[in-house]
Amino acid sequence: MIRLGILGAGFMGGTHAAAFAQLPDVQIVGIFSRSAEKAGAMAAKYDAEPFTDVHKLATDPRVDAISNTLPTQLHKDLTIAALQAGKHVLVEKPMGLSVAECDEMSAAAKQSGRLLMVAHVLRFWPEYVAIADLLKTGALGRPLAATAKRLVGPPRWSDFFLHPEWSGGGVLDLHVHDLDTLNWLFGTPKTVYARGQRSPESGGWDLAMTLVDYGDVKGFAEGSALQAPEYPFTMGLSVLCEGGSVEFTFRAGGVQVDSRGAGGSSLLVYEKGKPARPLASPAGDGYANQAAAFIECVRSSQPLTTGTAEQGRLAVATALAARQSLETGEVVKL
């Protein structure tokens, strides 16, 4: 039995809890929130203990692993505290607010001998996995370019997003998803160039259009949290290869990622001289697949194959390079 503590009872804490609760031989033993009411309500769902002292749960001797879904400015200290207490940690993206914070967490994981995984969930999202697997086969030839996007209105479930000093702004909190996806598919960027807009409300960079140069492959990512509140959450990934292209598009049935209801989704392959065809994707939900991968590595003591601390660090470095480019107007080398 793997005994789990979840730091955070907000949207992501609830999402992680629901994913872990599906797994056999996993027990959620504690839920932390600053709000006793929130901690109690979520803990009751999973027959867990509510905590309002975050350090007490992060270091609880009953706990084998921690899911850290707290706001980004709290990632480093709580992740390190849990690792030093002998816990394995799944930390939400972005890994930290700076590369230095990522390095401190990685050093703590190495010193403790415990697993540190970064929750870049698109690496487990069925349609994104299908695209990655297709590219590995070489069936479409050499990749030439890729376009990724993530568009949404201002997040409504927390005022955290109104404080770029806490979240890093949309470029680090939202845009990092697609920058990490491009890194996953094509490696370490050579240069980053971004243009965008600041939020009139928070002053943070909440819209970014970023060119990422991988050498032979050129990437473009668009991230915006400046859409109208009525705009439906939208994401997509398209990869152009020598022999054709593959494209995933998704639009939620409601206005944000936490919405429920029918939306629109397609995953299609376009090859020269052939009709468009659907591409099959693996079963499961991205969050459930991510939770399962984390627990399997905890249980087996096997190293991670994706979602590593090194990959989380590179995602932060890429997003910060995009933010530097936004602020200076210059091309930034990594």
What does this structure look like?
This protein has 2 domains: 2-119, NAD(P)-binding Rossmann-like Domain (Rossmann fold, 3-Layer(aba) Sandwich); 122-286 and 317-333, Dihydrodipicolinate Reductase, domain 2 (2-Layer Sandwich), CATH 3.30.360. Helix content is 35%, strand content 27%. The chain contains 11 helices and 15 strands. A 9-stranded mixed β-sheet has the order 14-13-12-11-7-10-9-8-15. Helix 5 packs antiparallel against helix 11 and helix 9 (176-186) packs across helix 11 (309-328). The mean pLDDT is 94.
List keywords for this structure.
globular, 35% helix, 2 domains, alpha/beta, Rossmann fold, nine-stranded mixed beta sheet, Dihydrodipicolinate Reductase, domain 2, six-stranded parallel beta sheet, 334 residues, 27% strand
Number of E-state strands: 15
Q: How many independent structural domains?
A: 2
What is CATH's topology name of the largest domain? Dihydrodipicolinate Reductase, domain 2
* Strand order in the largest sheet: 14-13-12-11-7-10-9-8-15
Mean pLDDT: 94
What's the SSE blueprint?
Elements: E1 2-7, H1 11-21, E2 26-32, H2 36-45, E3 49-51, H3 54-58, E4 65-68, H4 75-84, E5 88-92, H5 99-112, E6 116-119, H6 126-137, E7 143-151, H7 164-167, H8 170-173, H9 176-186, E8 191-198, E9 205-213, E10 218-224, E11 234-241, E12 244-251, E13 264-271, E14 277-278, H10 286-300, H11 309-328, E15 332-333
Parallel strand pairs: 1-2, 1-4, 2-3, 4-5, 5-6, 7-10
Antiparallel strand pairs: 7-11, 8-9, 8-15, 9-10, 11-12, 12-13, 13-14
Helix pairs in contact: 1-10, 4-5, 5-11, 9-11
